[in-house]
Amino acid sequence: MHNRDYLPRSYAACTAVLGALAVVAGAFGAHALRDRIDPRLFDAFEKGVFYHLFHVLVLLFLLSAERASLLSHRDARNAFHGFLIGIGLFSGSLYLLALTGFRPLGMVTPFGGTAFIITWAFLARAFMRSETSR
After folding, report:
1. 25, 88 contact by CB (below 8 A)
2. What pTM was computed for the model?
3. How many other CB atoms sit within 10 Å of the CB of residue 111?
4. In 10 A of CB 133, how many CB atoms?
5. Which pLDDT score is estimated for 68?
């Protein structure tokens, strides 16, 4: 095996913790929030859980893609960080909005969505670049 940098195990651990938190958030929403908050706020909370959990799966994919040499170490790390920012801003703002009802938090959500979009575009470019370098 050649000497190659891989994302540290802490990235995998972070992904596992984020996955557990997504399941906790989903269960909390279903059992503690559903009948206690405005249905629109509950929908926002559920949207946050969906995007959170979906992007945890993407983080797992990034770890695997780097190991399989489909992505460079740098590209995998940058995409990982971009998706973390997206989860924090998008899902985090929706969670806080639903829990507090503080509507200005909704202004943060598009920044998380933008982080997701930019990171997906970056990832597409990284895959295309890795394909041409083979």
Report:
1. no
2. 0.93
3. 15
4. 7
5. 94
